[in-house]
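User: When convenient, might I ask for sequence and structure tokens for a protein?

AI:
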Amino acid sequence: MLAAVITFAGSLLVALVVVALVHRVVGRLGRRSKLFAELAEHAHRPALAVAVLSAVQFSLGVVAHGDWRPVAIHVTGIALILAGAWLLAALLVVVEDATLARIRVDVSDNRHARRVHTQVTLIRRVTVVVVGLLAVAAVLMTFPDARAAGTSLLASTAVIGAIAALAAQSLLGNVFAGVQIAFSDAVRLDDVVVVDKQWGRVEDITLTYVVVHLWDDRRLILPTSYLMRTPFENWTRTQSALLGTVELDLDWTVPVEDLRQELRHALEGCDLWDGRVSVLQVTDAVGSFVRVRALVSASDAGRLWDLRCVVREHLVSWLRSTHPGALPQVRVRDLPRAGGRVAEPTSNGASDNRVFGDSPDGQERVQAFRGPDQPVQPG
């Protein structure tokens, strides 16, 4: 009995000392390397659990006796499998974090970096799930009854697969859509998107859903399958720079060239403008107003929104102060009066004030539209 206690304590002490020394060495290396720093932080506890359980199992296999020994070894083996899965998942997370740390997204052109971040984030979730499933399978295989059941179930794999696919059709569809998002480059982390008329930035992408951080700090949760089958706008797929318009309905007397020069002056004094596009055109001239459109550019969607507001306010203020006559207005003209009554048209112009005129051809058209039962009124 004393020998068993000494063996158990000695093996446990050796395991703890080895883990402590390795942790100390890795921690020192972590002062100069982020990879080793992440390793010392995330892998210390699972490594300690694996070392202690390994020491316990070694001690049980060497010195333990009695009927309880097989049960203790079995329980320790299960715990060791779970601890090993924990350590493996931690190591994979450390490697993935180190990969993400080397790829910077705080640069102007970060499209490739955001794509890699999206793929690595989803791969991390997949690897953790796979390691967990393998650990559960390994634990079940330690039971003889479970091995026998697995052998019998293997013969009916097709039936079970069909039933599982029907039962989890929605879940599997979202998972496959998540994998498709990761590698199709349709949407990435930090992409600016418009989905269902909601504008926001992609905050998180999982295997089953996508989180969009809306402009008013709400979160829009979308199943990945829904996102892949629904059209949406991606404003930053190739680049973040965008074009935007400012439209004004003004009077016909508006000095277009002066307004164009004022737009250029306003943009040159604004740090929101990226210097690419400054265009002012009259896009419509129907009715009482002319429509003037200013086309401007900015480096990203947020700056573009602010720039459009600044340009709109500046042009409105400039028109009010320098050309108030160009502001929208409705003109009313008095008709000439004769003896207090509105002047009637003369007989000379009577043939031109009807829909089809007073010619024979016009009379035929009047008859065609008026119908055979209604006589034509004399002109």
Remarks:
- The beta strands are 192-195, 198-205, 209-214, 219-223, 233-234, 242-250, 278-286, 289-298, 337-338, 341-342.
- DSSP finds twelve helices and ten strands in the chain.
- The longest helix spans residues 68-102.
